[in-house]
Design goal:
Layout (H helix, E strand, L loop, with lengths): L1 E4 L6 H5 L8 H17 L1 H12 L12 H7 L5 H19 L6 E6 L2 E9 L2 E5 L8 H14 L3 E5 L10 H10 L3 E3 L3 H10 L9 E3 L4 H9 L5 E2 L7 E6 L5 H12 L6 E6 L2 H15 L5 H8 L3 E4 L3 H11 L3 E5 L3 H4 L8 E4 L5 H6 L25 E9 L1 H17 L3 H11 L4
Parallel strand pairs: 1-11, 4-5, 4-7, 5-6, 7-8, 9-10, 9-12, 10-11, 12-13
Antiparallel strand pairs: 2-3, 3-14
């Protein structure tokens, strides 16, 4: 961990080291080749890539997980885990159901009525990473709002092991959400299959979910044919803390973020030199007890602790960084949060661990990273919805509004627009 004391604002970008260097050309070309193959050859290429990349052989029918596999998954899991998943699902469902919005009707002037109608996206694709750390929690975060929104078709893709089996905990999480259309396809191949459609895998209208650099690049490349949730990159946390914070708690959140991957980043901002010293010590002590120390040792090199002169400086630094996760462990955190304008998800006080948002508090953990929180929200119910505007204008309403439209249309040189008003006003019908 690198340590900085009272740095000038001009040095903040270098401290966080989050320069967007772009995707390596070779990775871009590899992903482009995979997507082109899937687009042109469909199932044939999907099966070829599944065989060469994932290591198992199947026919097209075998790509889809059977109902029997889904039904038997529950029996392979401990009751404690199933209970935890159900509790988390209940919290996530309650929070996202509360986000429902009524349709809107406004009479903007006499005879002119405007409406806004909320409509679910028809077909959505959920990508769930598998492998050594199957992200079953992401199933809950994506499938539950998709179901609440009323999406007509929910397709889930996740990589299988070399024996062709899909993680039973992913299957169980999907089943309790009501998602049963699951395909054992991973990586950029899965993104291509959902974006373009094959004989077996349906084309979807929007793709959601995290993944490695190949998945992220694939999502960017299919944007002309399919919407995606947001740009994404390595996971990150920024912790703002003063002398009221518990060093052991701060260190535990620091480490929980760094175990995500070697490119993860954790940043501590504090106004207390003593707290910074204690956190650094706690990080080293707690790290020795963790199973993913090798990963943490690498991501630690990207992480920093910064001593600043005031709480306002911490707020300014945080808004500059626009973190995916922001923990505010200050004495007056309800006041501190008022100054925050750029963040994916915020955790207040000493007991609001970031892990709660990752799993079970109810908020969504699919969040903008890499500074994208300046312009993107995390996934929420609205991400699975469209808003359609509707207007109804009476003849009397057009008599009032028409001259306004004509004047504006003629000022733009679009006389056909103006005539579409005039022909109606001059009609005897």
């Amino acid at each position: 961990m690198r340590i900085f004391e009272f740095p000038e604002k001009k040095d903040w970008p270098a401290i966080v080291g989050r320069q967007k260097t772009g995707v390596p050309q070779q990775l871009k070309e590899t992903v482009a080749s995979i997507l082109d193959d899937v687009r042109k050859h469909g199932d044939a290429k999907v099966l070829e890539y599944v065989r060469t990349l994932d290591g198992f052989d199947t026919d097209a029918a075998g790509l889809k997980v059977s109902g029997d596999e889904i039904a038997t998954a529950a029996g392979r899991l401990p009751e404690e885990l199933k209970t935890a998943i159900k509790i988390a699902a209940g919290n996530i469902r309650r929070f996202h159901e509360a986000q429902k919005q009524d349709d809107l009707t406004v009479e903007t002037m006499a005879g002119v009525t405007c409406r806004q109608k909320n409509v679910p996206i028809g077909r959505v694709g959920l990508y769930i990473p598998g492998g050594t750390a199957p992200l079953f929690s992401t199933v809950l975060m994506l499938a539950i709002p998709a179901v609440i929104a009323g999406c007509s078709r929910i397709v889930l893709c996740t990589p299988a092991g070399r024996d062709g089996s899909v993680s039973p905990v992913i299957l169980y999480a999907a089943s309790i959400c009501g998602v049963t259309e699951i395909y054992r396809i991973g990586g950029a191949v899965a993104v291509g299959a959902m974006a373009y459609g094959t004989r077996t895998v349906p084309k979807v209208d929007k793709i959601f979910g995290p993944g490695n650099s190949y998945v992220m690049e694939a999502k960017q490349q299919v944007l002309q044919d399919c919407a995606i949730d947001m740009p994404a990159g390595p996971s990150e946390v920024l912790i703002m803390a003063d002398d009221s914070a518990e060093a052991a708690f701060v260190a535990s959140d620091f480490l929980s973020q760094l175990e995500h991957g070697k490119d993860s980043q954790a940043i501590l901002l504090t106004t207390s030199a003593k707290l910074m010293e204690d956190v650094v010590s706690e990080v080293e002590s707690q790290k020795q007890k963790l199973s993913r120390r090798d990963i943490i040792d690498v991501s630690m090199d990207r992480s920093v602790a910064v001593l600043l002169g005031s709480e306002q400086e911490m707020v300014d630094f945080s808004n500059f960084y626009a973190p995916e996760h922001l923990i505010i462990a200050t004495r007056d955190y309800l006041n501190t949060i008022e100054g925050i304008v750029n963040a994916g998800s915020v955790f207040l006080g000493n007991y609001s661990t970031e892990s709660a948002g990752d799993y079970a508090s109810g908020t969504n953990h699919t969040l903008p990273t890499g500074g994208w929180a300046v312009s993107y929200s995390g996934v929420n119910l609205s991400a699975f919805m469209k808003k359609i505007t509707i207007q109804e204008i009476s003849k009397a309403g057009l008599r009032t509004l028409g001259p306004v439209i004509e004047t504006m249309a003629m000022a733009e040189g679009l006389d056909a627009h103006a005539r579409s008003v005039r022909i109606r006003l001059e009609s005897n019908r």
